[in-house]
Amino acid sequence: MAEDIKVRYSDADLAKFKVIILEKIEKANKDLELLQSAYKNDGNNGTDDTSPTFKAFEEGSETMSKEANTQLAIRQEKFVRDLKNAMLRIENKTYGVCRVTGKLINPERLKLVPHATLSIEAKNMQS
């Protein structure tokens, strides 16, 4: 009947992971704000008086930069959402438990990827 025992991290361990996640959320939100201001900014660099060819090149480059920043912002939003979901798992005391194997995810992995829901073992099975 040992399988009935739910394996989980201790409350003390969860508290340590919570600090790491909160710090990452704060940094991720700051990065997201920078990205959003970059792609929302019109960025008129005063190319009105330059040659039409250069202006077209400049506008094309600006469009590509905005698209790249938009993609980065979307990825950053997902990262923040994943971190917030990790906080919910901490509150539910299910944080750090692999959703495939049910085993504890290596704490070193969680320090590097605090929103991980798969152990390396489970991740390798997906490949």
Automatic annotation (TrEMBL):
Residues 94-123 form the Zinc finger DksA/TraR C4-type domain. InterPro entries: Znf_DskA_TraR. Keywords: Metal-binding, Zinc, Zinc-finger. A zinc finger (dksA C4-type) spans 98-122. The keyword Secreted does not apply. The keyword Zinc-finger applies. This is Molecular chaperone DnaK. The lineage of its organism: Bacteria, Pseudomonadati, Bacteroidota, Flavobacteriia, Flavobacteriales.
